[in-house]
Every structure is written in C-alpha cells, then in structure tokens.
User: Fold this.
Amino acid sequence: MKKIIRIFLNILYPRHCPVCHGILKDQESLVCPECENGFNRVGSHYCLKCGKPVKAQEEYCAACRGHKRAFDRNRSVFLYDGKLRQSLVRYKYYGAREYGDFYAESVCRFIGDEIRRWDPDVLIPIPLTVAKQRMRGFNQAGYMAERIGTKLEIPVSHDLLKKIHETRSQKKLNAAQRKQNLRNAFCVKEDLHGYTVLVIDDVYTTGSTMEAAALCLKAAGAEKVYCITLCTGQG
Ligand SMILES: [Zn+2]
Ligand SMILES: [Zn+2]
Assistant:
C-alpha cells in the first residue's frame, strides 16, 4: 500500500535531481547517475577546527588560528559555490524537500564515520525563530537532521535548542555588539551536563551561528559540541 501511495505521489509531485534540477528518471533514486558527484567536495585538507579548506601543510585556517571557537569541531561535506547555492534555494524556498534526502545521504556517506567516532547523544538542528518557522513551514536543517538520525540511529531533538532572536549580520557590528548579538540568539532550557551534542545546519560561512548555538549549549552544561554543515564557504 505504501508503495502504491508513493508511486501516485511521484506522478503528482515528481522528484527532481538536487544537482541539475531535472525530473529523476528513476523516481526511487536521490540523484541522476551522471550528477552523483556533481557538487564540489571539501578536499582532504581542511581546518581541524571549522572544516574550511586549508593548504596541505596547514592544520588550522587563518580565522581559527587567531580565535577560540565555542564549538569543538565542524565538518562540512561540500563547497558552498553557485551550484550548491541554487540547489539550497530550491530546497529551502521552492518546495524541493526531496533534496534533503540527498544532502543527508551525502553527510552520512562522507562524514558518517567521523560522526560515529564523536558518538553524540543527540542531534540538534539549528532552529528557526517561531515566526520564521511559521512563515516557511519547514526547517531545512531539521529535515536533514531527521534523516541523518534515522540512518545513524541517533535521536534528534527539535526543541532542546530554541532560537529566540534573529542573528543580525555580524559584519557591521563591533566586537561587543557581536557578542551580544550572538548571546541573544538562542536559548537552552534543559540541563545538558555530560552530554555530547551534534549540531546540524546547511551552510557554514563565518561560523557565527554555530558559535552562538555552541555558547548556549555549553552554558547549559554540554561537554562536547560538534557540528555538521552540508557546505562551507571557501574561507
Ligand atoms: Zn541531475
Ligand atoms: Zn578554521
């Protein structure tokens, strides 16, 4: 019965390829065979803190060398380039939720081993504010976290971390304003002493969102805060 429903849904709302956006010939697959490696991946040299690409002999990127991070580590699968940006726009704003299945699959395929080594107690998607979630009806990170959690058999919590204010762009703020801006963005109501948590988001750019979330989670007692992002800016 489930299969029949799925076939009907596929006729009504055919699944598209997250890379070329064409209708998938095989509706049971997540990506066209020729698009399987269509996104550019972060290579084997990446910052041991934030996961951004670095030169072969470097351990940390310039930003992490001069700056203490609130989170323990971040890993990203892909580079945030034009192709990925377009894919994420369709995923987030134009209803292509099926792209999230491919994103989650890619995270498990390329970073799954590392996640297992971190051994998190819970996966936490970066939340949207209540207003934004209502407007969009969908949290892009939450959808990915659900699928990653199912695949790796790790529980997912959607309400442990709450977003109470929008993080304004950090660029125009001075250091004190930045700190305040970050500190106000999230809140955690539970006691997380002894917990290892894994935060999930779609894009890592300056790391300010992850910093804000990690600050909050650590203040609530979390022992380790690891992060996974689908893609990262070049640095
Ligand atoms: Zn394709
Ligand atoms: Zn770094």
User: Anything to note?
Assistant: The helical segments are 2-12, 62-65, 82-93, 99-118, 130-136, 140-152, 175-183, 208-219. Residues 1-38 form one domain.
